[in-house]
Amino acid sequence: MIIIFAKPGCGKCEAAKAKLELLELEFEVKTLADYTKFHDGWQSDGSVEVLAAWSFFNDMPLLKIDDAFYSYAGAIKKLKGK
User: Fold this and answer.
1) Would the N or C end of the chain have less CB density within 10 A of its end CB?
2) Average pLDDT over residues 18-23
3) Which domain covers residue 25, as residue numbers?
């Protein structure tokens, strides 16, 4: 499963969606802010993982492929290697 954590109006996020569609891969899009702002349930909804990955990569979009996080460039390299 591929998840794109994106920001509204992000050109690189839109490019990532278009690339995954071109590669005919199924993906889900989630809003990054829903996982990087403090909220009820943050400990159980995966926000801790997303925030840690976002802090590490600090680039948009953040992609999760299976159980690992990638920057956009890293995700494309991984997917082309499949």
Assistant:
1) C
2) 93
3) 2-81
